[in-house]
Design goal:
One of its GO terms (cellular component) is succinate-CoA ligase complex. This protein is of the alpha+beta class. It is built from 13 helices and 18 strands. The protein has three domains: 1-19 and 108-247, D-amino Acid Aminotransferase, Chain A, domain 1, CATH 3.30.470; 21-105, 2-Layer Sandwich (Dna Ligase, domain 1); 248-396, Succinyl-CoA synthetase domains (Rossmann fold, 3-Layer(aba) Sandwich). The longest helix has 20 residues, at 180-199.
Length: 397
Amino acid sequence: MNLHEYQGKEILSSFGVRIQRGIVADNHKKAVDAAKQLTTETGTSWYVVKAQIHAGGRGKGGGVKLAKSLQEVEKISNDIIGMMLKTPQTSAEGKKVNQVLIAEDVYYPGDSEPEEYYMSVLLNRSTGRNMIMYSTEGGMDIETVAEETPHLIFHEEIDPALGLLPFQARKIAFNLGLSGGALKEMVKFVTALYTAYVKSDSSLFEINPVLKTSDSKILAVDAKVTLDDSALYRHKDYMELRDLREENAIEVEANAAGLNYVDLDGNVGCMVNGAGLAMSTMDLIKQSGGEPANFLDVGGTADAERVEKGFRIILRDPAVKAILVNIFGGIVRCDRVAQGIVDAYKNMGDDIKVPIIVRLQGTNAIEAKKLIEDSGLPVHSVVEFQEAADKVQEVLA
């Protein structure tokens, strides 16, 4: 589950990570009130207005701007809230901005120039260990840094039995070129950051930039936090942070119906039971000249109600030109699935305007095929994988 910047910072702060303080607002009047409150609490007189969407690169799209007065806070907030913000990580349409974060100015003058670093905490899947990835090149596209100057990217792997050790935190600070008070501050920052990552059951922390201020404080200026969905049962309060407006509407609907669904850019809808069979079915569609429009796993039950929900969700995508149902009847009998398909088709009537190809294999597969053929419905029943591939190719031609 992805979080907004302000939500991620709240989690970091709760574990002792120093952050750039800010207040979220959903209209320009509240934005001005937030700026006034920040001035009272922090003494800041300049403010950073940040669009809150689930995408990076907001500054490049005009979603992050500096305001040097309350009047500018009001104008900039009014301009950003409601806009369709386009970044390298959004669709061509962009994402609607529903709220902004009014943050304190942390690039104030002092004894030294502020410096920006990059830092993330994530799982290294090749080793099965958590890893801290960091660089002196903060505030930039880390992908570009990794491609053009890989020697500036450092990694520190954490032994799961020991956790982050003090020497590792010091090593990170040394590699970032820090010394004196800034080094001590970075050691505290890294230690608190890793503790927050583990205890919040997150799958990704990305802080870009981590800032060394002109008076050697270390803080998170931005925060991209992704929580592990499988661990949310341990953090019921985090569930309240979910912003459905930022998620794919079809995926939200499918999740509410208890279906495992992922929206894709294709023209053939898939309805399958089991993730492995779903992946094979998607390969089959591509080999047939089509492109999978979705990943949809109906699970161990495929009655009429569940199949109908699946059909309706798939057909919400106007790009779908055909639907391939590929079910293996192990736990569930194929004839029951077939009856579910027939009943769902009859219930939906004229709502189904694309060809449906059905492949049922396993328990009572012969009875299932006969049931579909005897229904008189325009459903193509096949037995073999190759038959399914040929039929997909045929209906797309």
